Amino acid sequence: MQQLPLLFITGLLLFSCKTNQPQSFSQVPAVPIDTTQVLTTIAFGSCNKADEPQPLWPEIVEQQPDLWVWLGDNIYGDTPDMALMQQKYQQQFQQKGYQQLLASTSVIGIWDDHDYGINDGGKHFAQKAPSRDLMLEFLQVAPSRPVWNREGGYQSYTYGPEGQRVKIILLDTRYFRDTLMESSVEGKRYGANPEGDMLGEAQWAWLTEELNSSDAQFNIIGSSIQVIHDEHGFEKWANFPKSHQRLYDLIAASEAQGVVLLSGDRHIGEISRLKLPEMPYPMYDITSSGLTHVYEEANEENRHRISDLIVSLNYGLIQINWQNHEVTYQIKGENGATYASETITYPMNDD
Ligand SMILES: [Fe+2]
């Protein structure tokens, strides 16, 4: 008896996939975003193949996070065919574990290259506009959000009342990014593009305003690719040294409080730390990558790393103690494993 409707739905899905036009997903309704919510537990992760086992969702749900943040490679689309991209997003919706998360937690996020549509892709990807719309549909971004009315996928969300406020800024490191330079160093894929830009001027202007106007106690910046790690030969902010410095200068000059960076992309987990002379506290880059797969052979130097180099499936967890402004950053894995943990008490401005 159950088979007929199922066949009908499958037929509809196959039909819609042949049209080459993105159609709406049959979505699992997400928990709506409540900006009055006081965030105490935020979970995040990246690098997730829709057709592979996703064993971490039950563990993530058990943490009862107030929010889940996707940091990119949320699916492995890797295609200019938007019907195929949509099919892969649909496959992700069908993951039972992800459905559990959607039923209990609100979700925001940004993409990286594979869900953008092309490995290591930048601004020249021809399908970037329709791909952007599919990402926002997958994330169930409300039609009233400003991101729908501009180019690119960058977004910001502010939660909580005055004094318990968290701002999450999600950068788009794909849509406007200049071309990568191949490295001449053996074993490294990319080197520095001295003049190249990461964000594009519209996004830089937006980011400046978002940081300068922030009255949040904690400002979380999500960047799909690593910000602080500057030694490996893959994608990283350091491949665009001008943009890299511009980002640091912007953060320091803004005086935004409690800034932390989150990243993914690498199929590893690690915590990097950098103390900018202009800032009163160290900045962390919490890299959590590998919800379904990891880079097992990883063995690389990182002068900023203060944790182990984690090559097990992992997700990230942020816990905020609003009493004393102490924040704990963790990288966690299967069976309750905690692979890295770092606690910091941020200085707070009272004005
Ligand atoms: Fe990536």
Distance from N terminus to C terminus (CA atoms, Å) equals 65 Å
Q: Helix count?
A: 8
* Oligomeric composition of the shown chains: single chain
The CATH C-level name is Alpha Beta
Structurally, how many domains make up the residues?
A: 1
Unreliable runs: 1-23
What is the spatial order of strands in the main beta sheet? 3-2-1-12-13-14
What do these coordinates show?
- By secondary structure, the chain is an alpha/beta fold.
- It has a single domain (3-345), classed as Alkaline phosphatase D (PhoD) (Purple Acid Phosphatase, chain A, domain 2).
- It has helices at residues 3-17, 57-62, 82-93, 96-104, 113-116, 128-138, 201-212, 241-254; strands at 41-45, 67-70, 106-109, 155-159, 166-170, 181-182, 190-191, 218-222, 259-263, 269-274, 283-288, 315-321, 326-332, 338-345.
- The strands form 3 sheets. The protein has a 6-stranded mixed beta sheet, with helices on one face. It has a 6-stranded mixed beta sheet with strand order 4-5-8-9-11-10, covered by helices on one side.
- A hairpin with a 5-residue loop joins strand 13 (326-332) and strand 14 (338-345).
- The relative contact order is 0.14.
- Fe (ii) ion binds at residues 73, 112-114, 265.
- Residues 73, 112-114, 265 line the site of fe (ii) ion.
